[in-house]
Design brief:
Number of strands: 8
Oligomer: single chain
Helix content: 40-55%
Radius of gyration: 23 Å
Structural class: mainly alpha
Number of domains: 2
Strand order of the largest sheet: 1-5-4
């Protein structure tokens, strides 16, 4: 039956091609449409959107972008020309839940925010970020002063992003309030071009979590911090906690990354459970989340993105944070370490990782109900 359905769609596309001549030019498409999809952000459990091999194919990427602009399946077949192949590709994307089909119309299964929609969306995000920033008061300079007093100024971007704006404290509040999607969800979106300070945080270990996390900050256009630290996270964490040198098998890579002293011991910040800085981070996270609750226009954003409020919150929480980071970096209030600067692939990874105690409410939200 599936073969018959594909054949019918092929015939329909051929008939339409014979009956009409349609210009194939599309706006908002880069020369290689795969470049758009590389700006994707994936949230929650599961693999990254770009791990799907279907999206590494140029024609598949073009189908997704064209379906976003014009959902008429027959029209898309006409524009792309090779009808039988296009019909097969569309069906593959539908089967992989990358395209949605309904009554002869198809559309991407995830938000593709480009062109005018991107401009309108980011105008709302920028306005929200400005209002949130005003509500934060002197939280940023107070945090930076404490970090610099400890000699941790090289880690200021890491602390502002991974241990404040993207922290386990903020995520615990978002999950408990049900404003965000649960972390068990596997959802993605694309904002192209993405915001300059698009960043992420990896938490180690990923399972069998005990008392501490190793948090690693990453930026896709900078050094591969998670790839290089992720393979040695346990050695780095154990050394930071115990003060003992790392094993010989881990020494070369971690030393090359600038994360060990001359005796082979970890030299990364560690915030302990009784550290006043931990209370400062928690308090700042509460203020930040409260500001988001007051200022994020979730209903308007959901309507603009054509998603539900929870998904709009999940997307826009990230984008507001990226907008704040850009404002603060551009103003010289915070600085990127060499490893996180765009276009640099510095061998040193100082300024990208630190230890922090596990926050049980976040861990509970991460694991989900038993």
């Amino acid at each position: 039956m599936r073969t018959v359905a594909i054949l019918r769609r092929t015939i329909a596309c051929l008939l339409l091609m014979l009956a009409t001549t349609v210009a194939s030019a599309q706006t908002e498409l880069p020369e290689d449409p795969r470049e758009v999809l590389k700006a994707s952000i994936s949230f929650g459990a599961g693999t990254d959107l770009m791990d799907n091999p279907l999206l590494r194919d140029r024609l598949n990427a073009e189908i997704l972008l064209r379906a976003r602009n014009d959902p008429r399946e027959n029209r898309l077949c006409t524009e792309l020309g090779d009808t039988a192949e296009v019909v097969t590709r569309i069906q593959s994307l539908v089967d992989a839940h990358l395209l949605l089909r309904h009554n002869g119309h198809i559309r991407p299964a995830f938000p593709l925010i480009i062109g005018a929609q991107r401009s309108n969306y980011l105008a709302l995000i920028d306005a929200t970020a400005r209002r949130v920033e005003r509500r934060l008061g002197d939280r940023l300079p107070a945090l930076l002063e404490k970090l610099r007093a400890r000699g941790w100024s090289e880690w200021e971007y890491h602390f502002v992003w991974s241990q404040w704006l993207d922290s386990q404290f903020v995520w615990a509040d978002m999950l408990a309030s049900h404003r965000s999607l649960p972390l068990s969800s596997a959802r993605s979106w694309v904002l192209y071009p993405h915001q300059p300070m698009m960043s992420g945080t990896n938490f180690y270990p990923e399972s069998d979590v005990k008392d501490y996390w190793l948090l690693v900050t990453w930026r896709s256009e900078a050094s591969d911090t998670t790839g290089r630290i992720g393979g040695h996270w346990k050695a780095l964490m154990d050394s930071a906690l115990s003060g003992a040198p790392v094993a010989a098998s881990d020494h070369a890579d971690l030393a090359d990354a600038g994360l060990l002293d001359q005796e082979g011991r970890a030299v990364i910040p560690m915030v302990r459970a009784d550290d006043p800085l931990l209370r400062e981070l928690r308090a700042s996270a509460d203020i930040y989340f409260a500001a988001l609750v007051e200022e994020l226009p979730a209903t308007k954003l959901a309507h603009l993105l054509n998603v539900d409020r929870q998904f709009a919150w999940t997307i826009s929480y990230h984008e507001v944070a990226f907008a704040l980071l850009e404002r603060w970096v551009r103003a010289g209030k915070i600085h990127l370490p060499a490893a996180l600067q765009t276009g640099t692939h510095n061998s040193g990874l100082r300024g990208t990782a630190a230890l922090v105690p596990v926050y049980p409410p976040f861990l509970k939200g991460l694991i989900g109900p038993n």
